[in-house]
What we know:
Layout: H1 2-31, H2 35-45, E1 51-56, E2 62-67, E3 72-78, E4 81-87, E5 92-96, E6 102-107, E7 115-118, H3 122-144
Antiparallel strand pairs: 1-2, 2-3, 3-4, 5-6, 6-7
Amino acid sequence: MILAIWVVILGAALGFFYWATGFVRKSEADERFDAGLAVLEFARAYPHEAIRNLVISGDGEMVFLRLWTGGAGCMRRISSRYLCSLIDAERVTLSATADPKTISIEFHDHAALTGVYSFKSEKDAAEVSLWLLGSVATRIDRDMEPSANL
């Protein structure tokens, strides 16, 4: 009889621990998709850049940011740290993939950011591609403006 009581208590304890660790795993997964944290971390790294919009990759490990200046930025989560970078569109190569929700991006200056990124929708993938192309156009427009000193 006492053995049966101990088995029930042990089973209840193991069931509770299994249930509790499921919540921990779920909260860790949800933590990757925190857009507010991405905004705060990027603003801390680049305090003079205003963020206009952001898109999170499908796995939540990369956040692409559209800036008010017409440029783009990104933030990648590497374990518990964040790598924030302004994207120099002239130093990035975009490649299409077979999946329309996925784009391959090669960062010539930051190998840690290079990868194949999948998004939740085709719209998100297209938007990130356009942000990178738009930042090239913005830079060309700025370079072609006549100087005020002439």
